[in-house]
User: What shape does this take?
Amino acid sequence: MDVNINLSQFENVIQSIQSIVKHSVDIGLVNANDEVMSYAIENEYGTKKIPARPFYRTGLIDGFRRKTLDMYIKKELEEALYTGEDWNTFYKKIGEKGEFFLKDSLLRGGWVPLSEITIKKKGRSTPLIDTSNMFNSIGSVVKWYINVHYQII
Assistant: This one.
């Protein structure tokens, strides 16, 4: 039995495989347990008793930090394309910058002040920072996945 392999097609196969590999980065409370996640959601959107303190939206989605992150992503993308940097490194940098913005948002605040009752209970007047569990849960995870398209004949 003879096997003929056309090596000129090999490069096309490699390019096709590379084109289906995708990356993404999740930025947020990636290390949070259910209790921390509930606390974060209650503070992000507010409840009947707690005013909204939208650290996530101000950290990544709205305003100055978002514009700065967009410019950073553009700069890093241009650099990655120019230098041939691998995509995992590119997304890791984006994740680290996003982590910084979220933590910065938590620390800088500008939130509605705590009530006197809450201050007495906590022993301090700093919103969103009780045990640092939420702060320490902020992280990023680079993910990659392959989109496979197939057809059943």
The longest helix spans residues 87-108. The first strand starts at residue 21 and ends at 28.
